[in-house]
Design brief:
0% strand, 73 residues, globular
Length: 73
C-alpha cells in the first residue's frame, strides 16, 4: 500500500492534539519552541497557529520544523 504523505502534512489549523496523533515524537518540536503545555487538555482544542500566537513563536517556522520531522519518517 502506498503511503500518502500529503495527508500527513501539518497545517496551522490542526490542533496540537491532531499533530501529536500523527506522531507523538513531534512533541519534541513543540517543546523546543518552549511549548511545554502540550499535555494540557487545552492542546486538544488549540490550533498550531493559536499556540504559536500565545507563545510568541513564528507559526510558519514551527510548521516548517514539524513538517520536516514528519517527512523524516
Amino acid at each position: 500500500m502506498k503511503d500518502n504523505k500529503k495527508s500527513n502534512i501539518i497545517n496551522k489549523d490542526m490542533t496540537i492534539g491532531e499533530v501529536l496523533e500523527l506522531d507523538e515524537k513531534l512533541a519534541d518540536v513543540f517543546m523546543g519552541f518552549g511549548m511545554h503545555c502540550i499535555s494540557c487538555p487545552v492542546s486538544q482544542m488549540e490550533t498550531v497557529e493559536e499556540a504559536c500566537l500565545v507563545h510568541g513563536v513564528d507559526t510558519d517556522f514551527v510548521l516548517k520544523k514539524l513538517n520536516e520531522n514528519v517527512k523524516k519518517k
